[in-house]
C-alpha cells in the first residue's frame, strides 16, 4: 500500500476557531494516554454487539485551542479486538487480545474529546474495523462469514447440547460472535463463539426474554455437529424495557438487530463507525459513506442502534479537515508532521506514534 501523502486542510474559520493553537504532545504523554483510555472506554460502551476493543497504540494526538481557551483533543488510535464480548462484565484491562494467528481484528479510530468538568469526554468519533491479514498461517483456523450455513448448524447443535445440561432453563441464541474452521485430518473442525439468553419457550419456539434481569451466557464450542464440546459462562444482565414504541431503534438484545449481521457475509463484528451528535464536524466522513449511526437517548445514555455494519470505506480518499493529519500508518517510524511553522529538519525521537502495547 502506498503511504498517503500528508494533508493538512485548514478549515478553521468555519468552526469558530478564529485562531487555533495546535499543540502536538508526544503520543506516550500522560495527556495522550488519558484521552486514549477515555476514548477506548467510550467506544466499547457504544457498540452493543461483538467484542470489546483494547488500546494497542496511540497513532497521533493534537490539542486544538480556540480563542476562548477551549481545548479539543483529537486522537488517532489503533485498537485490537479482545475475546470479551461487550455484554461480558470483565473489565477490558482483564480481557485477552486475540492473537494474530486466530485472526486479529483491528479498529482504527479518530476521536475528538473535550474536557467537561475535569474529565475528558468523547464528542465525536470515526472508526474503521478490519481483519488483520498478517501472519496468517496455512492450517490455522480461519474466520467464516457469520452467515455460514454449516457453521451455524454447528452453533445450534452445540447450543442444544448445552440446553440438555441446564436443568430448568432453556437458552436461545442472541448473537454469533465468531465462527472459524480448521482443516484437520478427518475434515473441517469448527470453532464458534456466541451469546445466548434465557428463553421463553412455547411448543417448539424459544424466544430470548426481552425484559428484566435475564441470565445470559457467553459460549464457546469446538468440534463438529455430531461431536463437540461446549462451554458457557453465564451472568445476569438487567435489560431495560424499550420505552418509546414509536422509536425505530432496534435494541441490541433483539434478534432483529443481529439478523442484520447474518444477512451480510461479514466475518467479524465492527465498531460503530461514525458518531457526531454535536455536529462538531471535526472528523469528516467521505461523501460516499452514509454510515452515520442514529442515536437514541435511553434515559440519558446514548446508545447506538443498528446499521453499524456498513461496508468499509477506503481510506485512500478520506478527507480529514481541520489540521487533523490522516495517514496510512507507514511501516517506518518517520512521523515528522509538516507543521504550519516550518522547522528545520532535525533528527528527534519521533513524538508519534506511541508505543505498541500488543503487536
Ligand atoms: C482484573 O485483574 C486484576 C489484576 O490482575 C484483578 O485484581 C481483578 O480481580 C481482575 N478482575 C476481574 C473481573 O477479573
Ligand atoms: C441429553 O442428556 C442425556 C443424559 O444426560 C443424554 O442421554 C442425551 O443423549 C442428551 N441428548 C442430547 C440431544 O444431547
Ligand atoms: C427444576 O425444576 C424442578 C421442578 O420444578 C425443581 O424441583 C428444581 O429445583 C429445579 N432445578 C433447578 C436447578 O432450578
Ligand atoms: C412467553 O411467551 C408467551 C407467548 O408468546 C407470552 O404470553 C408470555 O407472556 C411470555 N412470558 C414471558 C415471561 O415473557
Ligand atoms: C407516536 O406516534 C403517534 C402517531 O404516529 C404520535 O401521535 C405520537 O406523538 C408519537 N409519540 C412519540 C413519543 O413520538
Ligand atoms: C452470506 O452473505 C453474503 C453477502 O450478503 C451472501 O452473498 C451469501 O449468499 C450469504 N450466504 C448465506 C448462506 O446466506
Ligand atoms: C429514567 O430516569 C429517571 C430519572 O433519572 C428515573 O426516574 C426513571 O426510573 C428511569 N427510567 C428507567 C426505565 O430506567
Structural class based on helices, strands and sheet pairing: mainly beta
| Distinct ligand kinds | 2-acetamido-2-deoxy-beta-D-glucopyranose
What is the 3D form?
globular
Major beta sheet, strand line-up: 1-2-3-4-5-12
- Whole-Å distance between the termini? 19 Å
How many E strands? 14
Number of helices: 3
Query: Domains counted in the coordinates: how many?
Result: 2
CATH class annotation of the largest domain: Alpha Beta
Major sheet characteristics: 6 strands, antiparallel
Could you tell me the strand content as a percent range? 35-45%
Could you tell me the mean pLDDT?
A: 75
Classify the fold: give the CATH topology of the largest domain: Nuclear Transport Factor 2, Chain: A
Low-confidence stretches: 1-17, 243-263, 285-335
CATH architecture of the largest domain: Roll
Layout of secondary structure:
Blueprint: E1 21-23, H1 30-46, E2 51-65, E3 71-85, E4 105-116, E5 119-131, E6 142-143, H2 149-165, E7 171-184, E8 187-202, E9 205-208, E10 212-224, E11 227-239, H3 255-263, E12 274-275, E13 295-298, E14 301-304
Antiparallel strand pairs: 1-2, 2-3, 3-4, 4-5, 5-12, 6-7, 7-8, 8-9, 8-10, 10-11, 13-14
The structure holds 2-acetamido-2-deoxy-beta-D-glucopyranose (7 copies).
Residues 167-168 line the site of one 2-acetamido-2-deoxy-beta-D-glucopyranose.
Amino acid at each position: 500500500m502506498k503511504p498517503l501523502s500528508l494533508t493538512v486542510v485548514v478549515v478553521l474559520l468555519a468552526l469558530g476557531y478564529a485562531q487555533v493553537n495546535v499543540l502536538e504532545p508526544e503520543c506516550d504523554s500522560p495527556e495522550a494516554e488519558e484521552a486514549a483510555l477515555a476514548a477506548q472506554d467510550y467506544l466499547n460502551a457504544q457498540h452493543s454487539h461483538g467484542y470489546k476493543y483494547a488500546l494497542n497504540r496511540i497513532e497521533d494526538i493534537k490539542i486544538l485551542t480556540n480563542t476562548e481557551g477551549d481545548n479539543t483533543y483529537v486522537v488517532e488510535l489503533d485498537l485490537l479486538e479482545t475475546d470479551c464480548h461487550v455484554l461480558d462484565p470483565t473489565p477490558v484491562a482483564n480481557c485477552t487480545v486475540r492473537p494474530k494467528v486466530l485472526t486479529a481484528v483491528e479498529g482504527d479510530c479518530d476521536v475528538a474529546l473535550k474536557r467537561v468538568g475535569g474529565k475528558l469526554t468523547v464528542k465525536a468519533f470515526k472508526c474503521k474495523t478490519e481483519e488483520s491479514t498478517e501472519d496468517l498461517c496455512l492450517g490455522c483456523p480461519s474466520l467464516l462469514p457469520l452467515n455460514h450455513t454449516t457453521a451455524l448448524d454447528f452453533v445450534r447443535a452445540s447450543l442444544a447440547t448445552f440446553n440438555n445440561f441446564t436443568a430448568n432453563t432453556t437458552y436461545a441464541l442472541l448473537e454469533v460472535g465468531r465462527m472459524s474452521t480448521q482443516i484437520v485430518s478427518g475434515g473441517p473442525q469448527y470453532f464458534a463463539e456466541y451469546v445466548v439468553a434465557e428463553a421463553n419457550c412455547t411448543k417448539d419456539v424459544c424466544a430470548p426474554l426481552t425484559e428484566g434481569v435475564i441470565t445470559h451466557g457467553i459460549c464457546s464450542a469446538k468440534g463438529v455437529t455430531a461431536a463437540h464440546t461446549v462451554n458457557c459462562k453465564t451472568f445476569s444482565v438487567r435489560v431495560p424495557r424499550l420505552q418509546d414504541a414509536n422509536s425505530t431503534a432496534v435494541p441490541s438484545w433483539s434478534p432483529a438487530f443481529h439478523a442484520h449481521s447474518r444477512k451480510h457475509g461479514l466475518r467479524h463484528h465492527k465498531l460503530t463507525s461514525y458518531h457526531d451528535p454535536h455536529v462538531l464536524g471535526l472528523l469528516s466522513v467521505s461523501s460516499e459513506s452514509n454510515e452515520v449511526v442514529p442515536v437514541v437517548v435511553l434515559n440519558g445514555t446514548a446508545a447506538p442502534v443498528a446499521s453499524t455494519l456498513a461496508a468499509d470505506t477506503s481510506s485512500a480518499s478520506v478527507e480529514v479537515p481541520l489540521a487533523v493529519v490522516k495517514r496510512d500508518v507507514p511501516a517506518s517510524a518517520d512521523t515528522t508532521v509538516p507543521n504550519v511553522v516550518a522547522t528545520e529538519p532535525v533528527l528527534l525521537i519521533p513524538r508519534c506514534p506511541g508505543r505498541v502495547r500488543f503487536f
